[in-house]
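Retry 2 of 3 after timeout on previous attempt. Resubmitting structure tokens to design endpoint.
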């Protein structure tokens, strides 16, 4: 009887220990179970369709980490560029685009990588507050805009027939005008403190280096007034004649044109 009782106590104790271990293991997070590549990819697509770009990034990064040579690896890298950008992580989007260009220079979607590289360099004007208040960004630091303008021009030179070329052209025009306005904002300041030589330098830079911008007329007007102030009669008369020939009906107002829309990104994820 004593032996049977001891055996019973042992069985009860063993069952209690196993039950405890089972409960603990169920409550702990434990190691993440690796899912098949296709499951991660489909999950990413569902999350992007729901505008859950943070979640999509997690799924796409999992493919990149666990299946670097898998069926969906390259496509996941392309879509990471898009997901980062839509998640407002522009630095990550730019870095992902550069990485993709370096690793897959002959990929069918390489034009998209170049396009997004240029686009993500400068997106400060994509904020809700900027769009609602019509903030003039030309008075701020635009080094990123200059980089974006350069990279988009590179894209247009490399891929003039790309499906993204028309958007890149619109964005380039917008950036070109912003850069010109930035130079002329400095020229206006120099004129306000009677530093007319510096104002002339800025205005001439716009005319000579940013051709066909919306600010050419404004630049000429700055030259006209500064030449007159400094007594450069011949130069003043030359500029006045150019203005009369080319802008006889134009008012002296700065351009607010854009022609750019961010909405296309919602429907232009690479396939």
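Retry 2 succeeded. Sequence:
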């Amino acid at each position: 009887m004593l032996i049977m009782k001891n055996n019973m106590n042992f069985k009860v104790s063993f069952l209690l220990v196993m039950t405890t271990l089972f409960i603990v293991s169920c409550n702990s997070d434990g190691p993440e179970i690796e899912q098949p590549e296709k499951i991660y990819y489909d999950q990413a697509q569902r999350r992007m369709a729901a505008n859950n770009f943070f979640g999509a990034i997690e799924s796409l990064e999992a493919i990149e980490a666990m299946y670097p040579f898998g069926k969906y690896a390259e496509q996941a890298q392309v879509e990471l560029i898009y997901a980062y950008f839509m998640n407002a992580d522009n630095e990550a989007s730019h870095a992902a685009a550069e990485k993709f260009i370096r690793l897959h220079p002959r990929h069918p979607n390489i034009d998209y990588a170049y396009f997004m590289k240029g686009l993500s360099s400068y997106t400060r004007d994509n904020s809700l507050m900027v769009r609602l208040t019509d903030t003039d960004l030309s008075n701020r630091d635009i080094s990123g805009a200059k980089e974006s303008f350069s990279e988009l021009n590179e894209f247009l030179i490399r891929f003039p027939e790309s499906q993204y070329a028309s958007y890149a052209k619109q964005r380039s025009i917008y950036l070109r005008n912003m850069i010109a306005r930035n130079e002329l904002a400095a020229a206006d300041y120099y004129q306000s403190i009677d530093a007319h030589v510096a104002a002339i330098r800025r205005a001439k830079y716009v005319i000579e280096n940013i051709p066909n911008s919306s600010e050419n007329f404004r630049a000429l007007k700055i030259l006209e007034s500064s030449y007159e102030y400094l007594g450069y009669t011949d130069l003043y008369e030359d500029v006045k004649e150019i203005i009369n020939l080319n802008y006889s009906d134009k008012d002296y107002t700065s351009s607010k044109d854009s022609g750019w829309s961010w909405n296309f990104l919602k429907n232009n994820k690479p396939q």
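Attempt log closed. The radius of gyration is 30 Å.
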